[in-house]
Give the backbone structure.
Amino acid sequence: MKLGMILQSNKPEHVWNTFRLGITALKSGHQAEIFLMSEGSELETIPDSKDFDISTKVVEFKELKGAIYACGSCLKIRGKEESNICPISTMSDLLKMVESSDKVLVFG
């Protein structure tokens, strides 16, 4: 199964749970992609905490070959650019992810 996830939140627990599900799917032999939009595009600025090791989850997700994309317009509004974590993407890229996914979940 291919799982498409849209992350629209910068709340640490939402982000942490999104990546936990993606990691679980990848470890179970599924494909997983995460599209960051709205506040979710702030992923790199969300600090780790005692309860939410977000940077560790992002690294693990990427190591398991999970794909992460970020909305270019959302990044631009926030004065951000492409990062090492994910490429800048468009609504057309999001549409392709939705069309090619068996299930799409929205977090946030």
